[in-house]
Amino acid sequence: MKLERLLAIVVLLINRGRVQAKDLADMFEVSIRTIYRDIDTLGQAGIPVVTYQGASGGIGLAEGYRLDRNVLTDKDLASIVTALRSVSTSHANAARELLVEKLSSIVPQSKNDDFQANTNRFIVDYSTWTHPEALKIKLELIEQGMDQLRPVTFTYCSAEGTQTHRTVDPHTIVLKKHSWYLYAFCHERNQFRMFKLVRMQNVTLANEHFERKVINPQDRPWQQEWSRPDNQARLTLKFHARVRHIAEEWFGIENVMPDGTGYYISQVAFPEDSWLYGFILGFGADVEVLEPQHIRDEICRIAEQIVQNYIPPTQT
């Protein structure tokens, strides 16, 4: 709808400063001419849209312009409350809970039942099945470090089992594939790194302060580092039919193809480390690494070691 597009354009201009007309046209799948008509409509409605010329030009809003809270619909408020409650399942926060109360109070009493129903339609529970308190304490300390611009110190155990002491400037908490991570600037490595919270021990806050560096979380810089071509191993995996559904959950239905013999083939890419070996072994005898040969050999070596653990000692 045109009204929804107009509101979305205003929100984008508030958040991004200046946007090219072509980018807006591509985003909303309309012509550039339509975008300029939308801009004229916004101007006639009293919204101070400014067109900047030149190489660094684009469409923007007059500095200081903000939307009135009344622009939020009841569904918008319900979506915000749902998101806030979802985050609170992993670590409750008094300020966050108060914000939920504030947003709920905006809704007229006559619409309260519908509002509550909308907030309960979609629930995301980020809490863990076991030891939720340990995760909660870490998240609270890290969040406090981000609020107060204080470095966080901890002992970190890598996937290979190596323990190191780290001091980092916390910037972003990331939930990815059911696990919580901290994206932070590491003093020891002098660069941004990802740290898995379950591998962090003895988390404390340092007394000094740091200056937050400029990052754009929307670009997901941690994903770019993880998916670098030189950081990836390309594998061809052969799955038994009885674990086909698990392979589809991990790799997508379109990437689990029958090979004509009752088995299924997937071609995937992952960073090669101990996590990858454990992931493959987690399928037991229902998976076979076809390529590359060196990972196939490594899985075989680990499997032979596992067998040795279960061979009873020779009776003398």
From TrEMBL:
Record keywords, A-Z: DNA-binding, Transcription, Transcription regulation
Keyword Transcription regulation: yes
Domain HTH deoR-type intervals: 2-57
Organism: Paenibacillus xylanexedens
GO molecular function terms listed in the Swiss-Prot or TrEMBL record: DNA binding
Listed name of the protein: DNA-binding transcriptional regulator YafY
Highest rank taxon of the organism: Bacteria
